[in-house]
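Task: sequence design from structure.
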């Protein structure tokens, strides 16, 4: 996978080959808090779309009245970091009476943030369970695991292990 340029669709599990093919969707509740972030194929590129049929394809929240969504392009690079951080704090100059983050599930938000902005994270995700089970990282800490070079090591280890099994 090309880091920060390709992702795995949360719906169909297939590769999103570029930011232009991707979509980010989330839900907003009655209190304007956001959560349930998902990365999926934009409808035009969805493998679940059938011909000219109008359907949501991989977009799971398309018909939900609480859906919020943007093209993946809005979540790439510095613009994407600004977009994701706006859910946590829009800044003192815009909101002097900060009442806390709009995010209702920080675990989901952080996972989405890592997928979007940490090189190698998206490709390494499928190997996390095996890496923990097999002690690949040993006594790692909360930073070591997410360093791009360590994620790359895990990818190389587990893809070579997969190749040996074939």
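Answer:
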């Amino acid at each position: 996978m090309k880091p920060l340029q390709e992702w795995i669709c949360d719906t169909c599990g297939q590769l999103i080959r570029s930011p232009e093919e991707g979509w980010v969707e989330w839900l907003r509740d009655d209190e304007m808090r956001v959560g349930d972030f998902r990365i999926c194929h934009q409808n035009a590129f969805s493998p679940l779309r059938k011909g000219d049929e109008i359907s949501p394809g991989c977009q799971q929240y398309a018909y939900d009245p609480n859906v919020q969504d943007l093209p993946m392009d809005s979540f790439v690079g510095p613009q994407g970091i600004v977009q994701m951080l706006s859910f946590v704090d829009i800044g003192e100059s815009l909101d002097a009476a900060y009442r806390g983050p709009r995010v209702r599930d920080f675990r989901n938000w952080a996972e989405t943030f890592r997928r979007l902005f940490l090189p190698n994270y998206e490709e390494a995700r499928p190997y996390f369970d095996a890496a923990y089970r097999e002690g690949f990282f040993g006594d790692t800490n909360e930073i070591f695991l997410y360093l791009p070079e360590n994620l790359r090591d895990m990818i190389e280890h587990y893809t070579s292990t997969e190749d040996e099994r074939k």
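Residues 119-166 form one domain.
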